[in-house]
Structure formats: C-alpha cells, structure tokens
Amino acid sequence: MPDASPVPPSYVRSPSVAFLGSLAVDRALALHDLAGSLAHVEMLARVGLLSDEEATALSGGLRQIGTEVEAGRFSWRPELEDVHTNLEVRLTELIGPVGGKLHTARSRNDQIALDERLYLRECVHRLGQRLLALVTALVARAEAETRQPMPGFTHLQRAQPVSVAHWLLAHFWRFDRDLDRLLATVDRAEVSPLGAGALAGSTLPIEPTIVADRLGFSRAFENSMDAVSDRDFFAELLFDLSLLAVHASALGEEVVLFASTEFGYLERSPALGTGSSLMPQKRNPDVAELVRGKTGRVVGDLVALLTTLKGIPLSYDRDLQEDKAPVQDAVSTVEGVLEALSALVSSLTIQRDRMLRAASDTELLATDLAEALVRQGVPFRAAHESVAAVARSKGGLRPETIAPLLGLDPDRSTTWCGPAEALERRSSPGGPAPDRVAQQLAGARSRLEARRHSLSSLGRRVERVQELTRERAK
Ligand code: ARG
User: Fold this and answer.
1) Which residues are known to be catalytic?
2) Can the peptide bond before residue 332 be classed as cis, meaning omega within 30 degrees of 0?
3) 3 pLDDT exceeds 60?
4) How many structural domains are present in the chain?
C-alpha cells in the first residue's frame, strides 16, 4: 500500500517537537532558504546530478512555494520542526517524489548556515539605510550650526568652547564607524557554506562555487567543518549592533541632560516625548530615554549568543539553533532605535540664549589664556600656573582680570573673551573653529556619498534572493 501521507516517515519528529522546533524564528528565513535551494538545484543540474526536466520541476515547485510564502498563503506546520522541512514537504506535495531529489548532497546544517548569511546581508542593508538616514540628519543639522557656540565638557564639567556643529559631528563619526563595521561584517560573511553537507562534504561531484556565484557571494567555504559551525558573522553583527546601541545611548543621554531644566540647552518639544500622567507641568524626554534604555537588551543579545557559542565542539551542534532569537531581537530593536533617533535629531530645538550664555562663561577660556602666554614665550607650565592664580583669585577670570595678563586694553579683552572669537581661535586641525568644521563637513559629506554607494551595491546583492525566487519558470 503506497503511503497516502505526503509527509515521508523520516520527517515525523518526536513528540517534543515544541521544544526542538525552530519555526517561530526560522520562518523569517523562508525566502532565503528557497533562493539557496534554487541555486542548489542549478548546481545539481550543471554537474549532472539532476536532469533538465527534474531541475525544471524542482525550480517551478520552489518558485510556487515562494509565491505562497510572499502572499502569506503558505500553511506552516509546526510539527515539521523548521522552515527547511516545511518547504521541502510542501515541494513534494506539489511536484511528487522528484521533490526528494532536492536534498541531494545537502544537509540542514549547511542549509541553515547559508540562509543565515543571506539574512545577515539583508538585515545589514536595512540597518545600513536607517543608519545612513541618521548620519545624514546629523550632517544636515551640523551644517546650520557651525557658529553656534556651546560649552564642551570633560567629566561633565564645563571645559572648553565648541560649536553645536562640532558636537553633532562627533556623534556623526561614531555612527559612521558603526556603518563601516556593519559593511565589513557583511564583506567577511560573503562566503557560501553550501556543499559542506552535514560536516564533511559529499561523495558526489558537487561544485560549491556555482552556488556561491549564483547567490552573489564572493567565494565558497574552505573547510566543510568550519562552514557548518561558523557563526562569527552573527557574533560580529551583534557586537556591531551593541556598540551602535551604546553610541545611540550616549547621544540619548546627552539629549536627556541638555533638555533638563538644569542645562536648558534644548527645548522640551513634544517630539522629545510625552507628559506625565500625574505631574501637569512635566514633559519628559521619553524617546531619548528609551534609546538609552534599549541598549541593555542589545548587549544582552550579544552576550546570549557568545554564551551559546562558547565551548561547543565542532562541527554542527543543535545549540546553534539558539542563534536566531538574539539576532532577530537585536536587529528589530536597533531598527527602532535608529528610526526614533533620526526623528529626534531632526527635531532638536536649540535654546540659543541659554546655550550662548553658558558658552560665554569666561572660565572656558582658561586654556586659551595660557596658550596666549605661550605665544609670548612663557613655558606652558608657568602659563598654566599664572592663569590658575587669576582663576582662583577673588576677581576670577573676567575681561578686566584677563586684560593685564594679555597686555590688552579692556575693550579688546572683552572681544577676546567673546564666544565667537573663542571659537575662531580653536583652529587646529580637527578643531571646532568654523573653518575647520567646514573642512570636517566636507569630509563627512564625501563619507556619506561613499556609504551610499556601498549600500546600493549591497542592495544589488540582496536582490539576488528575490531575483532567484521570482524568476518565473523558464
Ligand atoms: N533548525 C536548525 C538550526 O537552526 C537547522 C539545522 C538542523 N540540523 C540538524 N541536524 N538538526 O540550526
């Protein structure tokens, strides 16, 4: 009696399928899995392991499943444990026993490793675009603020004058490095693991480079055991996202501080957050606080993955299935953070008077004063001491007390102490003087252009998945 059930007995899993199953997390990889299968079918046909008719039937079936998945019509069966088995069982339902040829020279071990690398590429492309929007917003805001002075801090104490542009650009460079790191993570991950089989390749005459080419990877694996067990790319992604979240958190913290009554540098506009349900006067910087707060989760995701990876023997171990949840959580969390932060940056409203008053604090000019003495030939240590003595004296650092030290008349001393002139003076390379910031902005703009370019080339590689699954049966 032929078995009426389309589910081959080898697919029927133990009753603990709820524990073993991964469908909840790996369903998201369905299209990547189908693209990998389509590339695999092409390879099997090229090396003579499938006839043309078999390859056509398999590809047609896989593409039909792609349509079902994209339309939300695919009926997922949790008892089939994972995305791979769900798709393969459906394939056999659609095209009959020839469906059983798909898994020739392949294991779910190399299959999942491939799916994950394709997924990584897509996630980084999405995250990269959001990050690009954030850095673009920072540059746009900075462009208009090169002459807006503000105090710069060390130890959260007023230290030396900077401009709002210089402050915003400091955040820009951090995030730009984050983008660079994400792109480098993808570059390192552009290795196709398909053909590694369960762990030791195959006795059949397969050609892994055909699959690699078809999926837009730069090469195929070097070592089959490494190929099925390597999750470095996810660990790197989670580190990249953790550091990005740490950077976002630091900016969030500054917004919280600067929007406080104590600082008053930023307006507590409605875009910053909500009111209090109890205290009628309150407007809280919730958005910045949550940007700061979400970081804990993302760092937790990194630690979760590293802990899973620690000490598992080569090659594939089922522990590796636990890699998906932290990655998916971190990716969606950081996507949300980036979106919120871009909107926040664009909506920041500077309280110019408050900020100008703070930047006009003559204490900020103590170093300038010492350096003015250095110009007159005084050794820096001695200059430091003379300025410290004035600062500590009853009169403190004021245009009148500074004038004799510099040999300036009082009027000239007042201009010398003005925040605009103070900013102009800080003209060493990479400094906050408006001319230097203009150079910095030019560098930042060309960086944006380069990143845009890298992301669009990544976008073309991401499209390989859709191109493969949507190519109508030829
Ligand atoms: N669900 C598994 C994972 O995510 C796929 C590979 C399973 N391999 C196996 N031999 N059970 O890692």
Assistant:
1) 155, 276
2) no
3) no
4) 3
